[in-house]
Amino acid sequence: MQKHLVAVAVGALAATNLLAAPVAVQSPDGQVAASFDVENGELFYSVSKGGKPIVGSSKVEIFAGATMAVVEQSIRDNDSNWMPVCGQFGTIRDHHRELTLSLTADGMPVKLLCRTFDTGVGFRFVLPEESKGKELSFSTGYNGLNNAATYSGQRGAKAGSLAKAVRVSVPLVTERRDGLHVAFLESDLYSAAGFESMRIRFSAVAKGLVAASSAVSAGEVQLTPWRVILIGETAGDLTVNTVALNLAAPCKLADTRWIKPGKGLWDWRIQGYNNGEFVYGIDTRSYLHLIDFCAEQGLEYFTVDDHWFKTAGNGKMTIAPEVDIAKVMAYAKEKGVMIMLYYDRKKGDFGDETLFNHYVGLGATGIKYGFMGNRSTFTRNAINAAAENRLLINFHDGPVPMTGVERTMPNLITREYCHAQQDSRSAFTPETFLKMAMVSALTGPLDMANGNFGITSINAGEREKGPRKKNSYIATVVGEVARTLVIYTGLVTLPDAPEEYLKKADLFEFLKQMPATWDESRVPNSKIGRYITVARRTGDVWFVGSVSDQTAQTLAIPLDFLEPEKDYEATLYQDAPDAHGVKNPEAYEIATATVKRDDVVSAKMAVGGGHAMIIRPVKYGIQHAESGAARRKRDGVQQDLCTQDLRPTAGPAIQDK
Questions:
Q1: Per residue in 35-81, pLDDT tens?
Q2: Which of 464, 461, 481, 490 shows the shortest CA–CA distance to 473?
Q3: In what order do the strands lie in the sheet with 181-187?
Q4: Collapsing DSSP states into helix, strand and coil, what is residue 325?
Q5: Please, are residues 601 and 647 in contact by the beta-carbon 8 Å criterion?
Q6: Buried b / exposed e across 468-481, counting CB within 10 Å, b at 16+?
C-alpha cells in the first residue's frame, strides 16, 4: 500500500480575517469544491463541481443556535490505497484533500473536517472533552435542489414536491436537468456513538431540505457521522462511488480470515414447494435436503429462517419439534456448508449478552437478525458482539442504513435495506428493482433475494411464502440471473427450490461460477427505473448483467473494459425471442461468441427481462456453454445458438439513454 500525505498549513488567522472570504477546499482534480463561511455567527457551506452549484449556501449546526466563529484552518493532501475484506473492488484508492476548520461554538472549541474527492464531499464535526454531556444537534441544509427528479429510501421511491417533504428517507438521489446525479447520505455512523440515522425533511425556515440527527456528547472521543454528497455523471456512477467507504473508519478487526463472502440457499420462500417426493417445510428433512444441494453445487451457505425455534427467553430456546437443530448443524458441518441462523425477539428475548455465544455453540457461522428496525445503538452493539464471537451478521426488516460499516466491521456481510423480492408476500416490479439498484444500493450491500428460476410456479401460487397476488411477479429467468449480479452483497441469497435450479442447470451455471466479491466493478449503462448494465471482474474474467423495465429494449454494451489485443470467449445468457416477463418468463437461450475490446454487444431484453455474460480470455476456453442442455428447445422454442456478430453497428442501440 502506498500512502502520500502532505500537510499544507494555512496558519492561525484571526477570525475577522477569515470572514472576508469563504474558506474553500478543492478536490485533487480541482473540479469539486466545498466552501465554508460564517455570517452573523452562523456557519454556512456550499458545494460545486466545475463551477456549477451542487448545493447552494446552506446552514450547518452542531449546537442548536450556537454562535460560530472561525479560528484557523489547515489543508492536507492524501493519496493512499486500501484493500477491503470483500466488496465491489479489490483495492480502493483514497485520494482527497482535507480541510480542518477550527471553530468555536459559543466559545467552545470544535473542529470541522471536510474531505473533497473528485466524485464527492464529506464533512463531520469532532468534539472536545468540554462538550461531554451536552446535547448535539447536527443539522445540515441542502439548498438549491429545485427542479431535479428525486428518489429516496429503501425502495428508491420517486419523491414528490420537496417543499412538502415531511420526511425523506436516506439516501436521497437527485437527477438534475444538466444530467448530473447527486446523492445525499451519511457515512461512519458506526463511529458516531449515540447518533441515530439522519432524517431529512423540508424546513420552511431554511426554505430547503435539512438533514438532522442528535446525540449527547461523550466528550473527547465524540464524532458526528460524515454528511456525504456523491456526484456522478450517471446514476451508475453513484453505485460504484467509493467516497462513503473512504470516509468510513478503517477495519477494526485484527484478523478477518474467518469472514468469507459466498452464495447460499434460503429456505423461507421454498416452503410449500412440492418436489414430487415431499413438500418443503420447516423440518429436518427439508433442511438436510437443502444442505445436500448446497454441498453438491458448491454453494457455501444455507440460511435457516424463522420458526426453527418456538420461544426464547433468559438464555434458553424451545426448538420446534419438527426440527432437530443439532442434527442439522452437524450435517452441515460434515458437508462443508456454513449456516446462517435466524433470530428475532418476537418469540421472546433470549438476551443479546449471551445470544451470539449461544449461536457459536450451535455451530452457526452467522446470524440473521430480524425486526429490530432503524436502531443505531442496537446495531453497533450487535455487530460488535457478533464480531467478538466470529459471527457474520445480516440485519433484516427495515435496518439502519449504516453506510460504510462494511469497511469498519466487515462481519456485517449484508442487510435488507430494500424491499427484498417477495417480502411481505408482495413482488416488486422491474421498475422498483431498477430504482433500488441505483438508490438503496448506495448505502452498501443489499440482501434482496433475487435469482428465482421457477417464476411460473411462483405466479401460480405454489409457494406458501410467495406473492399473495397471483401473476404479479414480473421478470424473466435471465433477468433474475442478471439481478443477482447487479446487486452487490457479500452473501448472495438464492431463494428458489433446488429442483427449479436443476431444471435449468445450464443457466444456473452462471450463478455457480459468479463469485460474491470482486476486483473491479463498472456500470456502462444506467437510467433510474429504466435499465442498468453492471460489469464485474474477478481476476481476468468478467461477469456482465443487464436488467430492463417493463419495456422490451436493447442496450449497447461496449467491451472497452477488456484488455486490448486479446481474444475473449463470451458465454451469453439471453431472453429467448418470445420471452416475456408476464406471458413467458422462463424462455431463455445460451450462445457463445469470440469478442474483443473494440466490440459492442447488443443486449436484447424482453419485457421485465435481462441479459448476462461471462467473458473469459481465450486460454480458459468455453466452459459449459456448448453442453447438450444449451442446445435444446426451451419451453417449446428452438434456440438459435449460432455465434453472433458483435461488431459495432451503425446508430445507437437505445435512443433514450
A1: 999 999 999 999 999 999 999 999 999 999 999 999 999 999 999 99
A2: 461
A3: 3-11, 68-82, 92-105, 108-117, 120-126, 226-232, 181-187, 172-175, 149-152, 157-158
A4: helix
A5: no
A6: eeeebbbbbbbbbb
